[in-house]
Amino acid sequence: MSNCKNICSLCKNLIVSRTVTYNAPNLQITIPEDNYYNNCKYCIIIADNIPAETPVDAPVVISVENGTQVYPLVSCDCRPLTARAIRSRTKYSTIVKTDATTGVFKLLGNLCKCNLSNGRRSLDGNAPA
Question: Which of 62, 67, 64, 46 lies closest to 105, judged by CA?
Fold first, then answer.
């Protein structure tokens, strides 16, 4: 007899992105419409591919579906993240920090240093463009 449950639930704070778009000058990650509260932890999964036309130095911002504001995605030491630092199909643990007029999604912990290089995204057998 197996102890495995047939039905499992996901954490209510696990957020799967709706879209990932390059909206110059930003790489914009859109998350589902909801209220994201100050000092609450949310794990964001970047579900879609990062568009090929996205420059590696494009700032990463998060928008809430059907909203008009964008919020920076920042490192644990509050530095803005750029497209070179993130990957598709990856989960990022964040905490929301707000003030009177805006807010940020702040990473909990450091990113792998290999993601922060200015190098190519991949090797495909061709010379760099």
Answer: 62
